[in-house]
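Risk register update: the risk of archive-format incompatibility is retired. Evidence:
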Amino acid sequence: MTTPLSAPTVDADPFCDEVLADPIPLQHALREAGPVVHLSTYDILAFARYEQVHAALVDWQGFQSGAGVGLANFRKEPPWRPPSLLLEADPPHHDAPRRVLQKILSPRALRTLREKWFADAEALVDEVLGDRSGTVEFDAVPELTESFPLRVFPDAVGIPAQGRENLLPYGDHLFNSFGPHNHLIEAGEARAGELLAWTTAQCRREVLAPEGFGADIWAAADRGDILAEQAPLIVRSLLSAGVDTTVHGLSALLHAFATHPGQWARLRADPALARVAFDEAVRWESPVQVFFRTATRDIEIGGRTVPDGHKILMFLGAANRDERRWGADADRFDLGRDPSGHVGFGMGLHQCAGQHVARLEAEALLTALARRAEHLEPAAPPRRHLNNTLRSWESLPLRVRLA
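Archived output:
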């Protein structure tokens, strides 16, 4: 059966609990169905192959972000909060905020944080593993992969210590809101207003520390690089997308090593592979699984016509495991692979501005853990946390044999 758009139809719901818990089978089915697939549940088109996902990501003129990167179409309905100047805007509105944030979060600018973050990572790992030998069991999510980003990133932004526990539930609801209005969104609605108000308050100049990413953004407004009213929205973009994604990226990294012990031995033999390992984990698990775009005109792609105004669901996780791009072993975590080109951070104009921050956090934590842990393995089955957009973790029990 085909739709009038001449695309194969798939009836599965990518936002049902079963698929969110394990999206791999549906992703495979979508890739095999064709380059463009019609999802009848929401009457939208979907791309799951690397070629089409990559093409849509880099073509901001044809596939806009300004109509929302979720299922909701901002051409037809207002967003529940002011749209992000980075994630949900296109040129020219996107340009100045992007330039400012790229400079503040550049690898060169982040060098000043490197020594402190590596020391913080060593201190945290020592706290978790203790001063002992033998084996240690712990839950990596609350003790490492949540704890470390919540320790270093808000400090770097310059927000007060009080209330930081709001960052993860705020981000969770935000990323849920990109999907359909299902039970996951309903569960977060009771606190949505409170969390948005708290997050918005942290973005004010007088609340932020005099030094940090937030102060740098306000300084850019003082120079006229951005408008003063844009500054708090750019700070909010950092707080919205800079914590949950990194937490789940770090969880994916530790899960990958726990289930691929040979790769852990390889990393310990060559710690310089830490950054490659993080990018390979982001490719393999894709913490950000899906994003939407909206066609700005009738566009031919994958031999099909995408009509003007039609929502497109891009399966980033599926593209990152596409055998056509990554080979027959695409489902394997492998430090011998070159993961550059993965779309886990997006691609093109809207590629994640904070990706270098996430890489530095991962390198610091992984280096500290590799120094202490000779071997790590699952101590119990991990538990997923369901989210409409994110490949998330609730619990990741690990057993570590200390070096």
